[in-house]
Write a structure and sequence with these properties.
Helices cover 47% and strands 14% of the residues. By secondary structure, the protein is of the alpha+beta class. The two termini are 27 Å apart.
Length: 111
């Protein structure tokens, strides 16, 4: 999968958010990197202060990083890659809104 295709899936996933969430997706940068830091088996990473814990609007920007190579390595085909990319992007955005890993896995298992 090309970098452009991967980035397009990330963008489409963000655009697919309901308007009430998309409007609140602020003060966050979403980037794509090839690999996570050494010895960290990650698909994505949220760094920042979740919206539910912010005391003011002067917080530094949050950062969501999506790691391309691990996502492609766990995917057996392009369809599975699209699914894994989408799930990872939504998972990390969930952290931006204050959801824990347990809550996010619970939501995923109900869908």
């Amino acid at each position: 999968m090309s970098d452009a295709e991967f980035e397009q899936i990330v963008r489409q996933t963000i655009k697919s958010l309901p308007d009430e969430f998309l409007a609140q997706l602020d003060n966050v940068e979403i980037v794509i990197e090839d690999e996570p830091p050494p010895h960290l088996p990650l698909l994505g990473l949220y760094r920042g202060v979740p919206k539910t814990k912010r005391l003011s609007y002067s917080a530094l920007p949050d950062k969501i990083t999506i790691y391309k190579m691990p996502l492609l390595q766990i995917s057996h085909n392009d369809e599975e890659a699209r699914k894994n990319i989408r799930e990872t992007v939504l998972h990390e955005i969930g952290h931006h809104f204050g959801l824990s890993d347990e809550e996010l896995y619970g939501i995923k298992n109900k869908i």
